Protein backbone atom coordinates (compact mmCIF):
# COMPACT_ATOMS: atom_id res chain seq x y z
CA UNK A 1 0.00 0.00 0.00
CA UNK A 2 1.35 3.41 -0.91
CA UNK A 3 1.88 6.02 1.75
CA UNK A 4 -0.67 8.83 2.12
CA UNK A 5 0.00 11.97 0.12
CA UNK A 6 2.52 14.22 1.94
CA UNK A 7 -0.17 16.89 1.96
CA UNK A 8 -2.47 14.57 3.98
CA UNK A 9 -0.56 14.64 7.25
CA UNK A 10 -3.58 13.63 9.34
CA UNK A 11 -4.61 10.70 7.14
CA UNK A 12 -7.33 8.66 8.89
CA UNK A 13 -7.04 10.61 12.17
CA UNK A 14 -9.91 11.44 14.52
CA UNK A 15 -9.84 14.87 16.15
CA UNK A 16 -11.86 16.85 18.68
CA UNK A 17 -11.72 20.65 18.65
CA UNK A 18 -13.29 22.57 21.51
CA UNK A 19 -14.21 26.16 20.75
CA UNK A 20 -14.42 25.03 17.13
CA UNK A 21 -17.37 27.15 16.05
CA UNK A 22 -15.35 30.28 15.28
CA UNK A 23 -11.91 31.88 15.24
CA UNK A 24 -8.84 29.69 15.68
CA UNK A 25 -10.92 26.57 16.29
CA UNK A 26 -12.89 26.99 13.08
CA UNK A 27 -9.75 27.57 11.01
CA UNK A 28 -8.13 24.51 12.57
CA UNK A 29 -11.16 22.33 11.80
CA UNK A 30 -10.80 23.22 8.12
CA UNK A 31 -7.06 22.59 8.25
CA UNK A 32 -7.51 19.16 9.82
CA UNK A 33 -10.06 18.14 7.19
CA UNK A 34 -7.85 19.40 4.35
CA UNK A 35 -5.02 17.29 5.73
CA UNK A 36 -6.87 14.00 5.64
CA UNK A 37 -8.60 13.64 9.01
CA UNK A 38 -11.44 11.14 8.62
CA UNK A 39 -13.42 12.68 11.48
CA UNK A 40 -13.44 16.12 13.11
CA UNK A 41 -15.74 16.72 16.07
CA UNK A 42 -16.47 20.36 16.80
CA UNK A 43 -17.45 21.09 20.40
CA UNK A 44 -18.76 24.50 21.40
CA UNK A 45 -21.62 26.23 23.18
CA UNK A 46 -22.39 28.20 19.99
CA UNK A 47 -24.78 25.67 18.49
CA UNK A 48 -25.87 27.46 15.32
CA UNK A 49 -22.34 28.51 14.37
CA UNK A 50 -20.95 25.07 15.19
CA UNK A 51 -23.53 23.32 13.03
CA UNK A 52 -22.71 25.64 10.11
CA UNK A 53 -18.99 24.93 10.39
CA UNK A 54 -19.61 21.18 10.52
CA UNK A 55 -21.83 21.31 7.44
CA UNK A 56 -19.24 23.36 5.55
CA UNK A 57 -16.52 20.77 6.24
CA UNK A 58 -18.25 17.41 5.91
CA UNK A 59 -17.15 15.65 2.70
CA UNK A 60 -16.94 12.10 1.41
CA UNK A 61 -13.51 11.88 3.02
CA UNK A 62 -14.16 13.65 6.34
CA UNK A 63 -17.06 13.28 8.73
CA UNK A 64 -17.41 16.57 10.60
CA UNK A 65 -19.99 16.74 13.37
CA UNK A 66 -20.99 19.21 16.05
CA UNK A 67 -21.58 18.42 19.72
CA UNK A 68 -22.76 21.11 22.09
CA UNK A 69 -20.41 21.10 25.05
CA UNK A 70 -19.68 23.43 27.95
CA UNK A 71 -16.11 22.52 28.86
CA UNK A 72 -16.51 23.92 32.38
CA UNK A 73 -18.76 20.91 33.06
CA UNK A 74 -16.53 17.85 33.36
CA UNK A 75 -19.42 15.47 32.71
CA UNK A 76 -20.07 17.16 29.37
CA UNK A 77 -16.40 16.81 28.44
CA UNK A 78 -16.43 13.16 29.48
CA UNK A 79 -19.54 12.57 27.37
CA UNK A 80 -17.95 14.39 24.41
CA UNK A 81 -14.93 12.11 24.49
CA UNK A 82 -16.97 8.96 25.08
CA UNK A 83 -19.37 9.65 22.21
CA UNK A 84 -16.46 10.38 19.86
CA UNK A 85 -14.80 7.06 20.70
CA UNK A 86 -18.09 5.20 20.36
CA UNK A 87 -18.75 6.69 16.92
CA UNK A 88 -15.26 6.78 15.45
CA UNK A 89 -13.39 4.11 17.43
CA UNK A 90 -10.60 6.29 18.79
CA UNK A 91 -9.27 9.80 19.41
CA UNK A 92 -5.94 10.76 17.89
CA UNK A 93 -6.00 14.52 18.47
CA UNK A 94 -7.56 16.72 21.13
CA UNK A 95 -7.31 20.45 20.44
CA UNK A 96 -8.47 22.04 23.68
CA UNK A 97 -9.10 25.52 22.39
CA UNK A 98 -12.22 26.86 24.12
CA UNK A 99 -11.51 29.99 26.12
CA UNK A 100 -12.94 33.33 27.15
CA UNK A 101 -11.91 36.80 28.28
CA UNK A 102 -13.79 38.81 30.87
CA UNK A 103 -15.33 41.99 29.47
CA UNK A 104 -14.59 43.71 32.77
CA UNK A 105 -10.85 44.02 31.84
CA UNK A 106 -9.81 43.43 35.42
CA UNK A 107 -6.94 45.07 37.28
CA UNK A 108 -5.66 44.01 40.69
CA UNK A 109 -7.28 46.76 42.81
CA UNK A 110 -10.72 46.10 41.33
CA UNK A 111 -10.35 42.36 41.01
CA UNK A 112 -13.73 40.65 40.78
CA UNK A 113 -13.54 37.05 41.99
CA UNK A 114 -16.80 36.02 40.34
CA UNK A 115 -15.44 37.04 36.94
CA UNK A 116 -12.13 35.36 37.76
CA UNK A 117 -13.89 32.09 38.62
CA UNK A 118 -15.85 32.22 35.38
CA UNK A 119 -12.69 32.68 33.32
CA UNK A 120 -10.86 29.93 35.18
CA UNK A 121 -13.80 27.52 34.91
CA UNK A 122 -13.36 27.51 31.13
CA UNK A 123 -9.73 28.45 30.50
CA UNK A 124 -8.23 26.21 33.19
CA UNK A 125 -10.82 23.76 34.55
CA UNK A 126 -12.12 23.12 31.02
CA UNK A 127 -8.62 22.59 29.65
CA UNK A 128 -7.75 20.20 32.47
CA UNK A 129 -10.93 18.20 31.86
CA UNK A 130 -10.18 17.95 28.14
CA UNK A 131 -6.60 16.80 28.73
CA UNK A 132 -7.69 14.32 31.41
CA UNK A 133 -10.46 12.62 29.45
CA UNK A 134 -8.72 12.69 26.07
CA UNK A 135 -5.67 11.25 27.81
CA UNK A 136 -7.77 8.44 29.30
CA UNK A 137 -9.26 7.62 25.90
CA UNK A 138 -5.85 7.56 24.22
CA UNK A 139 -4.30 5.38 26.93
CA UNK A 140 -7.24 2.95 26.92
CA UNK A 141 -7.21 2.81 23.10
CA UNK A 142 -3.43 2.41 22.84
CA UNK A 143 -3.26 5.59 20.77
CA UNK A 144 -0.05 7.59 20.70
CA UNK A 145 -1.97 10.78 20.26
CA UNK A 146 -1.43 14.51 20.38
CA UNK A 147 -3.11 16.87 22.83
CA UNK A 148 -2.83 20.58 22.10
CA UNK A 149 -4.06 23.41 24.32
CA UNK A 150 -4.50 27.05 23.40
CA UNK A 151 -2.41 29.20 25.70
CA UNK A 152 -1.28 32.73 24.87
CA UNK A 153 1.89 34.73 24.43
CA UNK A 154 0.69 36.44 27.64
CA UNK A 155 1.68 33.30 29.56
CA UNK A 156 5.18 34.80 29.37
CA UNK A 157 4.26 38.25 30.67
CA UNK A 158 2.54 40.12 33.46
CA UNK A 159 -0.16 42.67 32.73
CA UNK A 160 -1.97 45.58 34.35
CA UNK A 161 -5.40 44.65 32.99
CA UNK A 162 -7.23 41.45 32.00
CA UNK A 163 -5.17 39.80 34.69
CA UNK A 164 -7.64 36.95 35.24
CA UNK A 165 -7.14 35.98 31.59
CA UNK A 166 -3.36 36.31 31.86
CA UNK A 167 -3.33 34.22 35.06
CA UNK A 168 -5.39 31.53 33.35
CA UNK A 169 -2.95 31.27 30.46
CA UNK A 170 -0.04 30.87 32.88
CA UNK A 171 -2.01 27.97 34.37
CA UNK A 172 -2.51 26.38 30.93
CA UNK A 173 1.24 26.38 30.41
CA UNK A 174 1.70 24.65 33.76
CA UNK A 175 -0.96 22.09 32.86
CA UNK A 176 0.76 21.26 29.57
CA UNK A 177 4.17 20.87 31.16
CA UNK A 178 2.79 18.58 33.87
CA UNK A 179 0.54 16.53 31.59
CA UNK A 180 3.38 15.96 29.13
CA UNK A 181 5.32 14.29 31.95
CA UNK A 182 2.40 12.13 33.02
CA UNK A 183 1.35 11.01 29.53
CA UNK A 184 4.75 10.77 27.86
CA UNK A 185 5.27 7.16 28.95
CA UNK A 186 2.24 6.22 26.86
CA UNK A 187 3.63 7.95 23.79
CA UNK A 188 1.11 10.78 24.08
CA UNK A 189 2.39 14.27 23.36
CA UNK A 190 0.99 17.35 25.11
CA UNK A 191 1.82 20.83 23.85
CA UNK A 192 0.29 24.27 23.62
CA UNK A 193 0.12 26.93 20.97
CA UNK A 194 0.68 30.47 22.23
CA UNK A 195 -0.78 33.05 19.86
CA UNK A 196 -0.13 36.73 19.95
CA UNK A 197 -3.17 39.02 19.61
CA UNK A 198 -5.50 37.76 16.88
CA UNK A 199 -8.66 39.61 15.86
CA UNK A 200 -11.00 36.69 16.46
CA UNK A 201 -14.73 37.25 17.11
CA UNK A 202 -14.04 36.87 20.85
CA UNK A 203 -11.26 39.48 20.86
CA UNK A 204 -13.29 41.92 18.78
CA UNK A 205 -16.23 41.45 21.13
CA UNK A 206 -14.17 42.14 24.24
CA UNK A 207 -12.58 45.28 22.77
CA UNK A 208 -15.81 46.27 21.01
CA UNK A 209 -13.84 47.04 17.88
CA UNK A 210 -13.81 45.80 14.30
CA UNK A 211 -11.22 43.29 13.11
CA UNK A 212 -9.25 46.05 11.40
CA UNK A 213 -9.32 48.27 14.49
CA UNK A 214 -8.09 45.46 16.75
CA UNK A 215 -5.26 44.62 14.38
CA UNK A 216 -4.13 48.23 14.12
CA UNK A 217 -4.24 48.69 17.90
CA UNK A 218 -1.61 45.96 18.38
CA UNK A 219 0.50 46.78 15.34
CA UNK A 220 3.27 48.58 17.28
CA UNK A 221 3.76 45.55 19.56
CA UNK A 222 4.94 43.20 16.80
CA UNK A 223 8.64 42.91 15.95
CA UNK A 224 7.93 41.27 12.60
CA UNK A 225 6.78 43.92 10.16
CA UNK A 226 5.51 43.95 6.57
CA UNK A 227 4.14 40.41 6.79
CA UNK A 228 0.55 41.44 7.30
CA UNK A 229 -1.45 40.97 10.48
CA UNK A 230 -1.49 37.78 12.50
CA UNK A 231 -4.57 35.76 11.55
CA UNK A 232 -6.38 32.74 12.97
CA UNK A 233 -5.21 30.69 9.99
CA UNK A 234 -1.58 31.30 10.99
CA UNK A 235 -2.28 29.83 14.43
CA UNK A 236 -4.10 26.90 12.80
CA UNK A 237 -0.95 26.12 10.81
CA UNK A 238 0.99 25.84 14.07
CA UNK A 239 -1.67 23.58 15.57
CA UNK A 240 -1.39 21.37 12.48
CA UNK A 241 2.34 21.02 13.11
CA UNK A 242 1.76 19.97 16.71
CA UNK A 243 -1.01 17.56 15.68
CA UNK A 244 0.89 15.67 13.00
CA UNK A 245 3.98 13.46 12.89
CA UNK A 246 6.21 16.42 11.95
CA UNK A 247 6.38 17.14 15.70
CA UNK A 248 6.73 13.54 16.84
CA UNK A 249 9.48 14.40 19.34
CA UNK A 250 7.95 17.67 20.56
CA UNK A 251 6.18 17.58 23.92
CA UNK A 252 5.75 19.89 26.89
CA UNK A 253 6.37 22.77 24.51
CA UNK A 254 4.72 26.16 24.09
CA UNK A 255 4.85 27.13 20.42
CA UNK A 256 4.65 30.91 20.08
CA UNK A 257 2.92 32.29 17.00
CA UNK A 258 3.27 35.95 17.81
CA UNK A 259 5.43 37.81 15.25
CA UNK A 260 7.83 38.74 18.06
CA UNK A 261 5.08 40.30 20.17
CA UNK A 262 6.04 42.36 23.22
CA UNK A 263 3.16 44.19 24.95
CA UNK A 264 3.67 47.93 25.29
CA UNK A 265 0.86 48.63 27.70
CA UNK A 266 -2.85 48.40 28.50
CA UNK A 267 -5.54 49.28 25.98
CA UNK A 268 -8.96 50.75 26.62
TrEMBL record:
One of its GO terms (molecular function) is oxidoreductase activity, acting on the CH-OH group of donors, NAD or NADP as acceptor. Gene3D superfamilies: NAD(P)-binding Rossmann-like Domain. The keyword Secreted does not apply. InterPro entries: NAD(P)-bd_dom_sf, Sc_DH/Rdtase_CS, SDR_fam. It holds the Pfam family adh_short_C2. It comes from the Eukaryota. Keywords: NAD. The keyword Amino-acid biosynthesis does not apply. Belongs to the short-chain dehydrogenases/reductases (SDR) family. This is Uncharacterized protein.
Amino acid sequence: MSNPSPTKKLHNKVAIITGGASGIGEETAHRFAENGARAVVIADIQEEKGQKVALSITTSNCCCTFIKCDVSDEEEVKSLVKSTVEKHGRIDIMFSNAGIMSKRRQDILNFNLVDYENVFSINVRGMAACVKHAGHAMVEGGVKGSIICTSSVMANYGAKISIDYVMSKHAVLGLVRCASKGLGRFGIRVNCVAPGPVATPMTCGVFQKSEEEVERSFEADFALKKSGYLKAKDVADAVMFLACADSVFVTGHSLAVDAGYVPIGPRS
